[in-house]
Amino acid sequence: MMPDFLASWLDQNDIFNAMTIMEYWDGAVTTVQLVFVSLIIGLVCAVPLAILRTVRNPFVSGPVWLYTYLFRGTPLLIQLYIIYYGVAQIPGIQETFWWEIFREPFYPALLAFALNTCAYTTEIIRGAIMSTPHGEIEAAKAYGMNWFMRMRRIVLPSAARRAVQAYSNEVIFMLHSSAIASVVTIVDLTGAARNIYSRFYAPFDAFIFVALCYMVLTFILVFAFRKLENHLLRHQRPVGS
Amino acid sequence: MKKLIIAASCALAMFASGVQAEDRNLRIAFDVPYEPFEYKDENGNLTGFEVDLATAMCEEMKADCEFVIQAWDGMIPGLVARKFDLIMSSMSITAERAERVLFSEPYYNTPGGWFGPENFTADVTDMNTMKGKTVGVQRGTTMDTFVTEEMADVVTIKRYTTADDMVLDLEGQRLDAVFVDYPVGEQTVLTKDGFKEIGKPVKLGEGVGVAMRKRDKAIADEVNAALRKLKENGTYDAIMKKYFAYDIKV
What is the DSSP string of B124-169? Predict the structure, then answer.
């Protein structure tokens, strides 16, 4: 329940009444779902892709290189347009069960965001894998570990420590990029702000409030990643601290 | 002596203009092209519904009118800065604009039109048949307000910035119907195969009025009188029939 002073203030306010606050809340839920799910999908796919990308055989690493090149070389907005409008143009798609999924704007947006963040994450992890010190690998070989065990025990854990800082940036960029979901009729935070702006002709109030919402989400992410970094990089802290 | 004569003639001219209203010069601004309201024909002459109506109105007011082309962004600033005296360029009457300009009574109001695919069978006024449908509107339009207020519980509303994006989604079968400014729907939806009008046009909002400077109350009275006369004596209907197959009169 809302405290009384807040309720009475909301009653006197044109733009921030209980209804618009609910619209913002629903928008925030949609934004978080969209970003969170696409980041999970992106991360899960990025780890194997990053490993393939480091393989010497060009027939293995080439397709992954092409994928990351395409998705990092074009704007996310264009990717979203192509997937959202492009899918609807495929002849006969409306009769297949895929249409149940792609009719809603949420899933095309989710696909575009996941593919995009996966491309960036792949490159981040690849960079971290490539910069594994040779000594660590040689030591692992000397212990008789095979490739798979080396990856699992030595390369990936140390790569994860090196990737986490760059990855936290990618997560925050993804949160901010998700604002473009509103162009395909998804009512995320930005979509809610646009609807409210057009209803009350009050761009400043509507957009400054939504900017604050994004900032709060960003601070939560920054805080969470700082905790994670402290945990992962605790071996680098000076002794005794 | 000469100065005195100039001063005297100026005073006389001012006096005369006060008495003889018919000698007055009015400059009317349009933003072209906005078919069929104001546009240039193949010979480069300014024409269209509002241009014809403005001509008839000037005749009725016995005013000498001059037509000015002005881009939309500079419309209200140009009026305030006295670059012209009237705006007749499809400017909808809104409370926000009414704070800066003086509006005449509305002289036209295009209805909102319902458009959908050929196989659309529901009745747009019957909420039982509309249940579960997805309807597209342009964000912030009077059509958006109408659907939001009347149908939000029954249908899913999708809001678009441009009509083009909305029509793409109608073609892609993501929307069951669109509710859009009638002339826009006529040009974008009905020009495509497989789409039709699925309900009667609905009149929404106050409509479009002539905009004037706040202080020009005398001109506003004359404009209102002239528009009323044109609506009564059939001139308005004749002009409307020339450009529209449906009723936009208010």
Answer: TT-HHHHTT-EEEEETTSHHHHHHHHHHTTTSEEEEESSHHHHHHH
